[in-house]
# Entry
Amino acid sequence: MNICCIGAGYVGGPTMAMIARKCPDITVKVVDINKERIDAWNSEALPVFEPGLLEVVKESRGRNLFFSTDVDGGIAWADLIFMCLPTPTKTYGEGAGSAADMTYIEISARRIAELATGDTIIVEKSTVPVRTAETIRRILESQKNGARFQVLSNPEFLAEGTAVADLENPDRVLIGGESATEEGRKALQTLVDVYARWVPRERIVTTNLWSSELSKLTANAFLAQRVSSINAMSALCEVTGADVDEVAAAIGRDKRIGPYFLHASVGFGGSCFQKDVLNLVYLCGAFNLPEVAEYWRQVVKMNDYQRHRFARKVLHALFSTVSGKKIAVLGFAFKRDTNDTRESSAISICRDLLEERAKLAIHDPKVERAQFFRDLGRKDPDPSIAICKDPFEAAEGADAILILTEWEQFRSKNLDYAKIFALMRKPAFLFDGRNLTDLAKMREIGFVAEGIGKGR
Ligand code: UDX
Ligand code: UDX
# Structure
């Protein structure tokens, strides 16, 4: 079997590398219009930082895993085509700010319609609005060149930073398809058989197309809602003297609630949560369900509130002005173990502080220099932004230190906070946006220290 994947991003690259590893008899080509990305996939410096990924890629690369910019060639050659293309939030026209931009999906569907031959299975992996498979099918069927298509939905649930482990040992694999027809059942079975090489059969769930598409949006909406719910409680904890981590631990003992995804923070980031919740909101609106739309919209509103609230807390603590003050920022990626900064809460918080004319000294273990400036909408060099090689350089002469990403190296046991304190101007403030540090110890060192949801 020949598998082609269009889109060599965070989803396409790792997923295809895992398929190639587990199915040495299947040839997998990952194609992308971005030459720089493809070159990186063919090098030692992969474009995506994921623990363990380089080993997985190197095992199959050149054997049955190939990365190429020949999108058309890949399409014409494949029996099974994964679409791992971006579906960002629309920035223009109808639905701007909430609907998903389907441009890339449509362009690729049209290329497939033109180039594919024989029987081809199209798998949507991108998170898409419900009923996208219908759109893809109509585009495919508009070409009359004898080729026959089946469309499947196979949403990806991997989380960044743990992609390899998630792909190796998924909680479930979801495949949506058309089981009413013989061809549809055959297509479903073909994809089930690929995953069944390494995923226990009972974890492979098959549903109809629309359930599968909607399940992805629902899963991300529920996860985002959990973070917003605990973040909402964090604000209440701060004014009542409760401790949000104690509350989370207490409620997490209830099996019906469960202990995961209850870390209060500066807000969720990443390419998926906000985009997918907004997409869900738009869908509900489009299907004339305004109350349902409004319910989910609150999840994103709460996240925005949490970000701005954090920036305001810094401002007010620093005697209501940060103008000209140096503020050290530890962590810029949207979560630990990734170089990805998409929708990172750090961006929003840094922008708020720049607006107040602060001077930022930012350190992140993985994010590259150019990315900080792109995200903050500034040109390098900028007198208000310094990118630092380590936390100590960032802390030198700073009034405050902000922890914005949950990198292990920022935990109190892994970083010399006494040394950091000594380097800073006094009073020295610490705002721990991820509750990584022991605040009592930080106060002992001399910091004016605040966490998230830690009432006093
Ligand atoms: C994925 C999914 O595809 C998206 O729908 C999901 O909701 C989030 O995760 P991701 O892999 O993270 O996206 O996106 P990205 O890293 O941006 O990769 C997409 C790739 O597609 C890029 O490398 C881009 O160059 C490529 N692309 C885009 C094409 O090859 N052709 C196009 O027409 C557009
Ligand atoms: C998410 C989903 O988990 C994954 O299934 C889907 O395929 C893509 O979207 P990802 O965006 O990689 O994955 O990261 P995730 O681990 O879910 O974290 C998202 C954001 O929420 C991060 O900014 C993280 O720091 C934040 N978060 C997570 C919290 O603030 N508190 C928590 O308890 C958990």
Remarks:
- The pocket of uridine-5'-diphosphate-xylopyranose (ligand 2) is lined by residues 156-160, 220, 223, 227, 261-263, 265, 268-270, 272-273, 334-335 (CB under 6 Å).
- The mean pLDDT is 96.
